[in-house]
Design brief:
alpha/beta; ph1033 like fold; Rossmann fold; 3 domains; 21% strand; globular; disordered N terminus
C-alpha cells in the first residue's frame, strides 16, 4: 500500500507536492521499493491504471471492481489512487512504516507511473529516487498516519524534514511553490477583470476564504506587475452598518484639543480612501490595493458619494470637487479595489445598480479539493472533502447555495484540520449553530443534516456524545466510516 500526501505550496513553479508512502503492509515491500527505485500500492485487481483516460472512466471501473464498498468509499479511494497515478516529476513521496516511522523520502522521476504485472502484489508503482537520510522514528507526539492516503500538513513536513541533509530535504523544504496551478489560472482571470474594471468583488457563502483569497491575489498581482506588494501597498478596511463617507473620504470629526482648555474640537480629517489615493499617486509605477472586507454591510451609495463616478475605469484621473474641503480630487490608475461579500447576509442583487456596474464579480464557493486526502480520526475515518461536499448538497437542496458551509471552517493556519478533537469542536461550536439558525430550531430538518443518531427530533435536542463518538456518527451518516 502507499499513501500520497501534499503540503501547501511556497515558492512559484517548483515542486508541487510532498507525498507520503506506506510500502506494503508494515513496510513489507520497502526493500523492493528501495532496490527498484519506486513506491508501490495495491488494488491490483484494477489492472494497468494508464489505460484509463479520465477520472470518470476510472471511478466507474473502480466501483465495478469493488462492489462490496459503499459509493462514497469507492469515490474516496478512486480519487486518491488517481492522484497517485498522476504524480508528476519533482513531486515527493515519504515512505513510512506504521504510523510514526520514516523510512525515506523519494523524488518522483520522469518515468512516473508504471504497472508491473510480474510482481506478486502491489503492482502499481511510481518511479522515484530515494533519499534515506531522514530514516528515523518520530516522537510519540506525532499524530501518525492511519489511512492509506493522506495529505501532510506543513507542520508535518517540517517535523519529517528536521535534521535532514539530503537533496530531497533541501528541495522539498525550500522550493515548494507559493501558488497552485489552480490559483495561477484564477488569479490571471481576476487580473484581466481588474485591468478592465479596476474594481472586483469576491462574493460567496461564509467560510470560503474570500478575504484570504483577496490578500493572496493582491500579493500575486503585485509580484506580476511590480516588485511585489511593498509596505503600505495593500490596505485593508472593514465596512459595517455605521460606516460613513466621513470615515472613507473626508469629513469633520472630533479630535482631542491640545490647547490649554483641553477637551475636544472638530477637525477636517482625511479618510482611508483619500489617504490611499494620495499614496498611490506618489508611486504611479507600483500597484496599490484597497481590500474592503464585508463591503455589503455599509450603505455603499452614501459611503462612496460622488466617488461612484471617478472610481470607474474610464474616469480614473478625472477630478471632482470634494464638498467638504472644496479640494479637487481624482482616483489614480494604479489603485485597485477588491471587496468581499458574504451572500448568506445579502445577495449581490440588492447592491446599488450604479455600483454593481462599476465592479467585476467573482463567486467564491466551498472548495473541498483543499481538504482532499485529509481525514479526522475517531476509531474510524471521516474524509473531510466528501463530508463537506455531501453536507453542502443537503444544505443547498434545503436553503440554496448561498447558505453553504465553506472549507475554511475546517482549516487552521492554511492547513486542513486533522485532529478529531479539533474537528469535533468546529462541528459543535461553529457548524451546528449555523445549521440550527438555518432551520429555525426545526430538529426534524436538523436531523436531515446531521443524522438521526445525533439529533433527537421528538425531544428537540442534540444527543450528547463525546468527541470521538461525534466523528464516528458523522462518518457513518456520510458513508465514509471505514479506513481505506
Amino acid at each position: 500500500m502507499a499513501t500520497t500526501v501534499g503540503t501547501r505550496p511556497r515558492q512559484p513553479n517548483r515542486v508541487e507536492r510532498l507525498s507520503q508512502g506506506l510500502p506494503g503492509e508494515q513496510a513489507s515491500a520497502w526493500q523492493d521499493c528501495l532496490d527498484g527505485e519506486y513506491i508501490c500500492i495495491g488494488w491490483d485487481e484494477l489492472g494497468d491504471l494508464s489505460l484509463y483516460d479520465t477520472f470518470e472512466e476510472f471511478s466507474k471501473a473502480f466501483a465495478r471492481t469493488y462492489p462490496q464498498n459503499t459509493d462514497r468509499q469507492n469515490l474516496l479511494a478512486a480519487k486518491n489512487i488517481w492522484k497517485f497515478r498522476n504524480l508528476k516529476p519533482g513531486n515527493h513521496v515519504v515512505a513510512n512504516k506504521g504510523t510514526t516511522e520514516i523510512l525515506g523520502i523519494g523524488t518522483v522521476r520522469a518515468d512516473g507511473y508504471q504497472y508491473l504485472p510480474d510482481r506478486d502484489q502491489c503492482r502499481h508503482t511510481v518511479a522515484v529516487d530515494w533519499d534515506t537520510t531522514h530514516a528515523r522514528k518520530l516522537d510519540p507526539g506525532f499524530g501518525g498516519w492511519r489511512s492509506t492516503f493522506q495529505t501532510l500538513t506543513t507542520k508535518d513536513v517540517a517535523r519529517i524534514l528536521e535534521n535532514g541533509t539530503g537533496p530531497a530535504a533541501r528541495t522539498a523544504y525550500a522550493e515548494l511553490p507559493n501558488y497552485t496551478d489552480a490559483e495561477e489560472v484564477r488569479y490571471t482571470q481576476w487580473a484581466k477583470a481588474l485591468d478592465r474594471k479596476k474594481q472586483l468583488i469576491l462574493y460567496g457563502p461564509p467560510g470560503t476564504g474570500k478575504t484570504y483569497c483577496a490578500a493572496r491575489f493582491a500579493q500575486w498581482y503585485g509580484e506580476q506587475n511590480s516588485d511585489g506588494p511593498g509596505p503600505g501597498t495593500v490596505t485593508p478596511v472593514t465596512f459595517h452598518a455605521s460606516y460613513t463617507y466621513e470615515e472613507f473620504v473626508e469629513g469633520y470629526r472630533p479630535i482631542e484639543d491640545s490647547s490649554d482648555g483641553g477637551g475636544l474640537r472638530l477637525a477636517r480629517i482625511d479618510g482611508i480612501f483619500k489617504n490611499v489615493c494620495a499614496e498611490a499617486a506618489k508611486s504611479p509605477d507600483k500597484k496599490f490595493f484597497l481590500i474592503i472586507d464585508e463591503i455589503n454591510r455599509a450603505n455603499l451609495p452614501r459611503v462612496f458619494g460622488e466617488l461612484i463616478t471617478v472610481i470607474e475605469a474610464d474616469k480614473r484621473g478625472t477630478e471632482v470637487l470634494l464638498p467638504t474641503s472644496q479640494a479637487r480630487f481624482s482616483v489614480p490608475e494604479n489603485l485597485l479595489i477588491i471587496g468581499t461579500m458574504n451572500t448568506a447576509d445579502r445577495s449581490i442583487r440588492t447592491l446599488d445598480a450604479a455600483l454593481r456596474r462599476r465592479f467585476a464579480f467573482e463567486e467564491i464557493l466551498p472548495d473541498s479539493s483543499l481538504l482532499e486526502g485529509q481525514a479526522s480520526y475517531g476509531s474510524t475515518i471521516l474524509a473531510l472533502d466528501l463530508f463537506l461536499d455531501d453536507l453542502n448538497k443537503r444544505i443547498t437542496a434545503y436553503a440554496g447555495r448561498d447558505r453553504q458551509i465553506g472549507h475554511a471552517f475546517f482549516m487552521h493556519n492554511g492547513e486542513p484540520i486533522s485532529d478529531p478533537i479539533d474537528f469535533a469542536q468546529v462541528v459543535r461550536l461553529e457548524v451546528i449553530p449555523l445549521l440550527q439558525e438555518l432551520v429555525y430550531d426545526d430538529y426534524a430538518q436538523l436531523a436531515q443534516f446531521l443524522g438521526h443518531t445525533l439529533v433527537d427530533s421528538p425531544g428537540q435536542r442534540l444527543v450528547p456524545v463525546d468527541d470521538e463518538q461525534l466523528v464516528e456518527l458523522l462518518a457513518a451518516e456520510y458513508g465514509v466510516a471505514n479506513p481505506l
